[in-house]
Amino acid sequence: VVQLTNKTNAQPFNAEDEKIFQVFINYCSLIVHFYNMQQNKIYYDNLKKVYSDIIKLHLSPCRHDMDEIMETNGIVLPPNNFKSFDYHISEGSKEDMPGLVCYMFVDTFADRNFERQNLAEFALTILQCYRNNPYHNAEHAFCFTHTIYLILASNCGYFDFVETAALMIAGLCHDLDHPGYNNNFLSLSKHPLAQMYKSSMLEYHHYFLAKKIIEVPCTV
């Protein structure tokens, strides 16, 4: 509330004074509104940082899983038919998927000295971010990455390091946190992802989560 009681020259307020005062009030209102917006922005920026730290915490793999995979130095040696398109991971070997993912990365980038523990943590983090869907699950991501691995192995020299890394990482991350529904269903059901993105909702979400995981400090 802004109130004027009198003028310094003791003259009564006139119509022009009222117009000037109205403009002044409008500017004061804008200043207060802008200040409140800035305070809200500061609050939500900090809230975003808090939530981001929580996400990073819960994305970290279980310590028992890390200890288990590091017993074999972060990789699992593959079966004899692993370098064949006919290979498919058996039901009883699915616990080996993180170690086999690490093997594919180490084999593909044989000239790179990966920090095995960080590579294992990366593989475990990615695979645990897949939901237990009938199709878009961790096994699907593993099989897709295996196909990319074989294609790259038989086409050495056609892709540089960045392109090869992009293909391997994209193959592993391409369906991260897939809810089991398609974009059309998300749009019709007014899912939060559909409110965030006007098209390709799932693709944007997969990319966002993959980027969030990759941004976690590590030396893979």
UniProtKB/TrEMBL annotation:
Zn(2+) 2 binds at residue 175. InterPro entries: GAF-like_dom_sf, HD/PDEase_dom, PDEase, PDEase_catalytic_dom, PDEase_catalytic_dom_sf, PDEase_CS. Residues 62-220 form the PDEase domain. GO terms for molecular function: 3',5'-cyclic-nucleotide phosphodiesterase activity; metal ion binding. Gene3D superfamilies: 3'5'-cyclic nucleotide phosphodiesterase, catalytic domain, 3.30.450.40. The active site is at residue 136. Zn(2+) 1 binds at residues 140, 174-175. The keyword Cell membrane does not apply. GO terms for biological process: signal transduction. Keywords: Hydrolase, Metal-binding. Pfam families: PDEase_I. The keyword Amino-acid biosynthesis does not apply. PANTHER family: CYCLIC NUCLEOTIDE PHOSPHODIESTERASE. This is Jg13015 protein. It comes from Pararge aegeria aegeria.
